[in-house]
Hints:
Blueprint: E1 2-6, H1 14-25, E2 31-35, H2 41-53, H3 59-77, H4 84-100, H5 108-116, H6 118-133, E3 138-141, H7 143-146, H8 160-173, E4 178-182, E5 185-187, E6 193-195, H9 201-211, E7 216-221, E8 226-227, E9 239-240, E10 242-244, H10 245-253, H11 264-269, E11 274-278, E12 287-290, E13 301-315, H12 323-335, E14 340-345, E15 350-355, H13 359-368, E16 372-386, H14 390-397, E17 402-407, E18 411-416
Parallel strand pairs: 1-2, 1-7, 2-4, 3-4, 7-11, 10-12
Antiparallel strand pairs: 5-6, 8-9, 11-12, 13-15, 13-16, 14-15, 16-18, 17-18
The site of magnesium ion has 5 residues, from loops.
Amino acid sequence: MIVCKFGGASVSSASSIKNLAKIVSGYQEKMIVVVSAFGKMTNAFEDLFDAWYEGSPNRFKLLGLIKDYHQGILNELFPLENHPVYGHFQFLTDLIKEKLNKAPSGDYDFEYDQLVSFGEVISTKIISSFLETVNISNLWADARDWLVTDDTFREANVDFNQSGPRLNELISSDCARLLVTQGFIGGTIDGYTTTLGREGSDYTAAIAANLTNARLLVVWKDVPGILTADPLYFPDAEKVDELSYQEAIELSFYGAKVIHPKTIKPIQNKNIPLYVKSFIDPQGSGSVIRNIDRPCVLKPILIIKKDQVLLSLIPRDFSFVVEECLSRIFAIFFKYRMKVNLIQHSAISFTLCLDNRGPFIQDIIDEMKSDFRVLYNEGLELITIRHYNSGVIEKHTAGRQVLVEQRSRNTVMYVVR
Ligand code: ASP
Ligand code: MG
């Protein structure tokens, strides 16, 4: 068994879907194909969701844009006007429209999952139908039927014990070589749709690989492999040929966009190698994440997080920042699902660097204000360099004002303006 994951960028046009078909037909083994929503459709569904939630009449226009985008791809892939895929598409968009005509319940996270998940349901329907037309027989598997989760909507926890037998039964019950399923979404035991968190399709692919003891997992991307920096900002970024699971976890923890942070554990547990390959150059060697037990010298790897906020908390009564006080601080961050990227503390102050998630920052400050004096800076960048050397540090911090520096043996982090 091989698991292949195709993210939004790799399925954003009719020609890229034809390319997907070419890639999967290059393999002979049984395969699970995990697919995200097309292009930037999850963002479009989030906008639609917000408009619906706010009761904005604009929601129908936004649905129109989503329909047009898919329709354009459908028309190119299926010249036959009476192809059954058009009926499936109509059925799904009618369900969405029906939803938009009703008021959402008060449960934001629940409603988000019920609506935003349509992106993946539609994309997989189209891809599965297209593969049939080019004689790649496959089974469309609804991830909500095999990927069992709890009901933590928007960040669901996967029940591996229940999901395993379901997925393996699907595989053995069908003679098709290929199973096409959705990334990012799952279902509760009561039949409600859940999602695993944004960019969660990598995680779905890793779960599928784990549950089926796959030989390997391939994540197809628009870059040649794992790079030493974001090529958008650093055209001289180099490819890293191989990484250990440990290093990959570290990189995703610091915010490298290589792979969703939850992806590594399920494949590491079964010692399954993960290849990151380019769908533009499928013959390229890509990068591999696997078990490496010899020490290896790694090139410096740069990770930049933009739009950061630095908060410093100083207890008003000048009490020391001790455990009880820290647990109070963290309970507030947890409540707002804030991701803390760096922490530094002294006897009477506690400094955190966070992703700027809009209005929540103000809510957090309001909650902290009675106990702490809060100092606050926004519009910052967090630069992390793994396997640093002085030349690389100099190159990326020159001319910047450093607000916080934190250095360990392998990693140095700078909050800069
Ligand atoms: N489509 C989802 C998202 O954009 C999941 C994924 O792409 O991994 O977040
Ligand atoms: Mg996506």
